[in-house]
Amino acid sequence: MSGILPSDYGAPLARSYRWSLAHGRFRFFRIREAQSDILLGVSPAAYTPELALAAATALSEARRRIQLWLDAYPRAGASYAPVPRPATPGAPWTARPLLDMLDASDAAGVGPMAAVAGAIADWVLDAVLTGLAERGAEAEAMAENGGDCAILAWAPLRVAMAAPGSPFGDLAGLELPPGRWGVATSSGRLGHSASLGKADACTAVASGAALADAWATAMANRVGGPADVEDAVAQVERDNGPLAAFACTGGRAAYRGTFPLLAGGSVVA
């Protein structure tokens, strides 16, 4: 499925950030298929091998549906702007996760593929949550797909923002309240995804990972240099914009949002 995750845009970013995850809070497991490499976590007492099977099955189905759309509409898959909705009733691309991609694309004004990693993370997390619900288990859970995270938290959760090589690379991150969240980061300097800008990192928080993924891309596209970081985070003022936004490049950073921004364990904004 070469259409899903292009690998020739930016410098690759090793997933070393995974070592810093909350291994006491979550029991982690990994699923992979072709380019997709997803780390999942659930409350340790809630884990069963069946959850990994459910997640892997969901990943395969997500990739199948998205590939059918890419095969049918190759120009839409390559678009940097929102595209018309497919008109074929009952086709696989008229359902999730593709609809999540299209909705996020429309909201942020970017191409649907800008939301693909987040949409898959949302879809796979939902499969895990369904498996937990079928057993009557109430548990926290998360899915991380290339740095884009879908999260269900029952208590406040600190989420790190990685910007290797940036003066802000050691920023602890954001503290999210309990709830369902999406957190995504885009860069014009690092990673496999296409970007029209030169941001070291732009992080968006939204109600879902697909929407966060699309807004992180839209923000990063706006950053041509340090003077643009304030404009990037101003997207929180847009209708259906991100709930929080952080951008940095060239030694300058900006943040807007209601969640505490943390550095060195202290609230800084």
**What is the CATH-assigned architecture?**
Roll
In angstroms, what separates the terminal alpha carbons?
Answer: 42 Å
Give the CATH H-level superfamily. Answer: ApbE-like domains
Number of beta strands: 12
CATH domain class: Alpha Beta
Q: Low-confidence parts lasting 5 or more residues at pLDDT below 50?
A: 1-14, 264-269
Portion in helices = 25-40%
Q: Structural class, please?
A: alpha+beta
| Form type | globular
> Which sequence of strands runs across the widest sheet?
1-2-3-4-7-8-9-10
Strand residue percentage: 15-25%
Instruction: Please tell me the overall pLDDT.
Output: 84
Describe, in plain words, how this protein is organized in 3D:
By secondary structure, this protein is of the alpha+beta class. The protein has 6 helices and 12 strands. The chain has helices at 49-72, 74-77, 98-108, 116-134, 209-222, 229-233, and strands at residues 27-33, 36-42, 141-145, 148-153, 157-159, 173-176, 179-186, 201-206, 244-249, 252-257, 261-263, 266-267. Helix 1 (49-72) packs antiparallel against helix 4 (116-134). The chain starts with 26 loop residues before the first strand and ends with a strand. The model is unreliable at 1-14 and 264-269 (pLDDT under 50).
